[in-house]
Design brief:
The complex is a heterodimer. By secondary structure, chain A is mainly α. Helices cover 72% and strands 2% of the residues of chain A. Chain A starts with a strand and ends in a 6-residue tail after the last helix. The mean pLDDT of chain A is 88. Chain B is α/β, with parallel strands linked by helices. Chain B has a six-stranded mixed beta sheet, with helices on both faces. The longest helix of chain B has 18 residues. The mean pLDDT of chain B is 87. The chains are: A mainly alpha, B alpha/beta.
Chain lengths: 265, 332
């Protein structure tokens, strides 16, 4: 059995080893999970006044949206650029490049293992949220949950590919994490992490929808919270972005590797 | 360069240039560096050619920055050459084809591929899966290499808790798990104590004998080179200036040998001048430097002409000779 060209054994071994590694850092991961509470801050901010109503959402709708945004963020957060830069500068990338496994797949395994480690903390935070806001409690239907799960994985894939594109610039700039800021700022504003995209003026919304960012948080969060959303076009856009980014990362990686000088190694 | 089928590695007119930026010190230099950055190409390796046969153990010698590590990185495919050609077993290394990667390994002293917070065994099973080894094959191979490297419980302790020597041996085990036939070793004994160095050396020698693997080694420790490498390639300022066996290098570096004589009775120095250059004369002890072609005659005459208690012939230490060679920059 093969998964994305890898044998099941490679996938299983990579994931179990990375999970064991992540468990070594479970306290750190709990803190990272707690540090992702930005959607809750935004919820308390918007629910203090009537601004939330202008989004077309009441307090319960707003609470569900931001809890969903928090959960989607927990399972689509990406840090490949930072690990890659460190490995590249320290020379750890060199042995990875000489093994018959694309180095980026190691980072994919590390991210998936981290998501599994985050799961109990994310559930605990969600339960706490419901205890504090009992009126906002809801359980998505099974199809709703499945679609949200799928779109969150697509969101993770897009975010991973976007950061990999920046990470590949390490072969040129050595400090590509600085360039990651160029993605982070539009991500923050256009993904729906600070405010649901329905709050944006229509012109801004039209431009935002031409970027991958609304499909990283806003789209999966809307599905999970049960808000009305164009599911077909949302998934189409996610698949489109993935199909643009995969060859782009491939090309940039191949060009970059030619320039690799194995610094620090 | 004509490729002989018996050649495993062919390096032909290989060069590598690194582009570097030049920054002058001070605030003015910083501003100039920011607005008008000047870069230039630094030659790391220039026009190097040689061939290596299967099963050979070859040592690369050179001072820091000579270009030996760059050469090794190009041969294993880690970096792309600027010009020239490398062929390793019919593969172009920089293409990093899976079949090629399964045949080689690179070990770098003090650089690790093992996961820091997990025991080496976890990394070993990842490597086994990546190289397509079955669980049974992996177990047999790990046991075999662990025995050769004298590793036991260390493999189930977190890497961060291991000593440098234990870590290096675990790194070597991880690098050799897939039975590579070409080993690129860059300073594999760097930072190890004398005993650990000796164990790594004897392991590599044993590995070469058992598997017939080709070993290419850079090291600053002459003991590594003298113990393992019958053939050496000397690199100086990016250029090859010696390729041959270690003994011939020692002969060309040092055309003379030291003859130390212990006499029964003291003799004046004038009596020894005709035999060679007097290096030392102290009471009953004389040290002469004698050219190799006259050595037999001189020793025979000394034994006839003097009442001798002991006589010793030796080469100057090879590391001293190589050190002088790098300073001089040429072989005699």
């Amino acid at each position: 059995m093969r998964i994305f060209g890898l044998s099941f054994k490679v996938v299983k071994t990579l994931l179990t080893t990375q999970y064991a590694y992540m468990l070594e850092y479970r306290i750190e991961i709990a803190l990272w999970a707690l540090s992702g509470v930005l959607p809750f801050i935004m919820f308390s901010l918007w629910s203090q006044n009537d601004v939330g109503n202008s989004f077309g959402l009441n307090d319960i709708g707003l609470a569900r949206y931001f809890l969903s945004a928090f959960l989607v963020r927990q399972f689509s957060v990406v840090w490949v650029v930072f690990s890659f830069e460190e490995d590249s500068l320290s020379g750890r990338l060199s042995p990875y490049l000489l093994q018959p496994l694309h180095p980026l797949l190691r980072y994919v395994a590390a991210h998936l293992a981290e998501q599994a480690t985050r799961l109990p903390f994310a559930i605990a935070i969600a339960i706490t949220f419901f205890i504090l806001n009992p009126s906002s409690f809801w359980l998505p239907s099974l199809p709703q949950f499945f679609l949200a799960y799928l779109s969150t994985h697509f969101a993770f894939t897009i975010a991973f590919l976007l950061q990999s594109l920046v990470a590949a610039l390490c072969f040129w700039t050595e400090k590509s994490s600085a360039l990651e800021r160029l993605i982070f700022v539009p991500y923050l504003f256009l993904s729906g992490l600070l405010v649901p995209l329905s709050a944006f003026p229509s012109n801004v919304l039209k431009v935002a929808m031409l970027t991958p960012f609304p499909f990283l948080i806003n789209f999966p969060a809307k599905i999970l919270s049960g808000m009305p959303v164009d599911i077909f076009n949302g998934f189409l856009a996610q698949i489109l972005w993935i199909s643009i980014l995969v060859p782009s990362v491939n090309i940039l990686w191949k060009l970059g590797v030619k320039r690799y000088t194995a610094m620090g190694a | 360069m004509h490729n002989n089928p018996s050649d495993l590695i062919v390096v032909d007119q290989l060069s590598k240039y690194y582009r570097v930026a030049n920054k002058q010190p001070g605030f003015k230099g910083t501003l100039k560096h920011f607005f008008d950055r000047k870069t230039y190409d630094v030659p790391a390796v220039t026009d190097i050619s040689f061939k290596i046969s299967p099963g050979e153990v070859v040592g690369f010698l050179g001072a820091n920055g000579a270009g030996k590590t760059t050469l090794l990185k190009m041969m294993c495919g880690l970096i792309h050459p600027s010009t020239g050609l490398v062929d390793v077993g019919g593969f172009s290394p920089q293409r990093r084809q899976t079949a090629f990667l399964k045949e080689i390994t690179l070990v770098m002293g003090q650089k690790q591929q093992l996961i820091w917070d997990l025991p080496p065994m976890d990394s070993l099973y990842v490597n086994a899966a990546v190289y397509g080894l079955s669980d049974h094959e992996a177990k047999v191979r790990i046991n075999e290499l662990a025995e050769m490297l004298e590793l036991g419980d260390e493999l189930t302790r977190p890497v961060r808790k291991l000593s440098l020597g234990q870590r290096m041996k675990s790194e070597i085990l991880a690098s050799l798990l897939h039975k590579p036939s070409v080993l690129f070793l860059d300073e594999p004994t760097l930072g190890l104590d004398v005993n650990a160095q000796a164990r790594v050396r004897s392991f590599l020698s044993e590995y070469n004998k058992r598997t017939g693997a080709t070993i290419l080694l850079t090291s600053h420790y002459m003991a590594d080179i003298t113990a393992l490498c019958p053939r050496v390639i000397c690199i100086h300022k990016g250029k090859l200036f010696y390729d041959g066996d270690l003994d011939s290098l020692a002969n060309s570096l040092s055309p003379s040998r030291e003859v130390k004589v212990e006499l029964k009775n003291p003799c004046p120095s004038e009596q020894f001048k005709k035999y060679g250059d007097i290096q030392d004369l102290n009471d009953r002890f004389v040290c002469l430097l004698v050219s190799r072609d006259k050595l037999t005659d001189v020793v025979s005459n000394l034994l006839t002409d003097f009442d001798i208690i002991d006589l010793e012939i030796s080469d100057p230490p090879i590391d001293q000779l190589i050190g002088e060679l790098f300073i001089r920059g040429e072989v005699n």
